[in-house]
Specification:
4-stranded parallel sheet; alpha/beta; 21 helices; 7-stranded mixed sheet
Length: about 475
């Protein structure tokens, strides 16, 4: 759960340190509607770059940033709609865009959601403790970014097989970078490193996105309302929000679907994973190349009972799509198929996991035979800014993309996206997936079997987490008052 017990002495010290740094912590309400940020923050942001390590940039942890590299304010939601010429289905597939967050990925929000409750209660002391951020990539970047703004030392933990761009950036921002064996699927090796750090005797707090409910809460409180607002903006009379399709990763983003289902009863949640590592679909394991979605376990914070569908994506598909979307032969072929230049110019907003999310949404739309009045939402976690090296590697391995190659990718993975490797979840199937948590979290990570059962049987368990946002914002405001009084 989310512990909001206050440690007064530490909170006082940390708040006064924040005042010395000129730091104001945004509330969850301000991340939903950043136009409500203090005018002093807005004035500062007029001269600050999106990726700058500047305290005011914490207020850019929102889906409503002006999409510019420097000096942007706040406005409408950043989103992209994919036309039928690209999706091969009549349903409207729409994605929130993650590129316009600091660090270029929305995971900086999940990191903030884990950090903020510990910070403003005094449970975490950045003046004395190190912050460790175990991740498959973007989350540890977000954690290192937040830590640097707080003048806190950070440890980024991620698999050695992640993209070169991630490591190059982390080398400049994190105090320590630990590369664990393997790639996206090797999450246990990350957890093993966390246990090693706990036993090291160093004063370290580990912010584990896979079991920290602050991750869930941030997406429920910020991404979910963004989806709901976007639905109200895009829907006409008779239209409906059919559902949300998202690859699992740490499962934090799926919490946005929980919010959407409350606002739009009848909508569904589809959880995607790699076909090469079909943990939810088949209880299986394996290696894959969809960067950023760790597998071989069910995250502790995944509300499985509220998940309606599992979608498995062959990792060759998103790797093919990033070539189709970003290389000249691919873009030319898309134009020949009627995709507008405006859309083609924006396709670099999809990174590898974004392409997998797009495919999950398409497969969901085809499964339910959704039509023109139906919306399916997803998220573009990051952009091609973090994967240019992958394009070079793919070209070296497979040669220059030809028109025939582009046609094959387009017709196989987009127009030919099928409803294979999917499952609608009835009660027993949900229960089976939920029970897989036992082996990782109870046997390996020290969670209690009774809490695992509470997650399934106690109707108030998830409601308590969701309502924590109402309690956190007053604590953030009080922390800011203490900081301002000692500045």
């Amino acid at each position: 759960m989310i512990d909001l017990t206050i440690v007064p002495e530490v909170r006082e010290r940390v708040a006064r340190r924040a005042g010395e740094l000129g730091l104001t912590i945004p509330t969850f309400a301000q991340m939903r509607t950043p136009q409500s940020a203090p005018s002093s923050i807005k004035q500062q942001l007029a001269g600050v770059g999106l990726w700058d390590l500047h305290p005011a940039n914490l207020f850019r942890v929102t889906w409503r940033n002006e999409p510019v590299e420097r000096g942007g304010g706040f406005g409408g939601l950043n989103f992209m709609e994919f036309p039928p010429e690209l999706t091969g289905c009549d349903a409207r597939v729409v994605a929130l865009v993650g590129k316009w967050f600091p660090t270029g990925a929305h995971k900086v929000g999940a990191a903030f959601g884990c950090l903020a409750p510990r910070l403003v209660t005094g449970q975490f002391d950045p003046t004395r403790q190190l912050a460790a951020w175990p991740s498959t990539g973007n989350y540890c970047r977000g954690g290192a970014y937040d830590s640097r703004i707080l003048s806190c030392r950070s440890i980024a933990i991620l698999p050695e097989g992640m993209s070169r761009e991630r490591f190059q950036w982390l080398d400049k921002v994190a105090d320590e970078v630990i590369a664990t064996p393997g790639s996206e699927s090797n999450v246990k090796e990350i957890f093993d490193k966390c246990w090693e750090l706990r036993r090291s005797g160093r004063d370290i707090m580990i912010f584990n996105q896979f079991d920290e409910f602050g991750n869930y809460l941030w997406h429920y409180s910020v991404t979910g309302p963004a989806f709901a607002d976007l639905a109200e903006e895009l829907m006409g009379p008779g239209d409906r929000l059919a559902g949300v399709a998202l690859t699992t990763g740490s499962s934090g983003t799926l919490a946005s679907g929980d919010y959407v289902k409350e606002r739009f009863p009848g909508s569904r949640i589809a959880a995607g994973e790699a076909l090469q590592c079909p943990t939810m679909l088949q209880g299986g394991f394996g290696e894959h190349r969809i960067e950023g979605i760790g597998d071989k376990h069910i995250p502790w914070i995944h509300n499985v009972r509220n998940t309606d569908m599992v979608v498995a994506i062959d990792d060759t598909a998103p790797l093919g799509l990033i070539r189709l979307f970003n290389e000249p032969a691919g873009q030319d072929y898309l134009a020949s198929q009627g995709v507008s230049s405006d859309v083609i110019e924006r396709l670099d907003l999809l990174g590898i996991s974004g392409a997998a999310n797009l495919l999950s949404a398409i497969k969901m739309a085809k499964w339910y035979e959704l039509g023109r009045g139906d919306l399916v939402f997803t998220v573009l976690t990051d952009s091609m800014d973090l994967y240019r090296s992958r394009l070079v590697e793919l070209a070296e391995d497979h040669g220059e993309l030809s028109t025939a190659d582009a046609a094959g990718i387009y017709h196989r993975h987009l127009m030919g996206a099928s409803t294979d490797h999917m499952a609608e979840l009835d009660y027993p199937r949900r229960r089976r997936i939920h029970s897989l948590k036992y082996f990782t979290w109870v046997e390996q990570q020290g969670k209690s079997a009774s809490e695992l059962e509470d997650q399934w049987y106690d109707s108030g368990y998830w409601d308590t987490i969701r309502r924590a946002g109402e309690r956190i914002d007053p604590l953030i405001e009080e922390f800011n008052r203490i900081a301002a009084s000692g500045a």
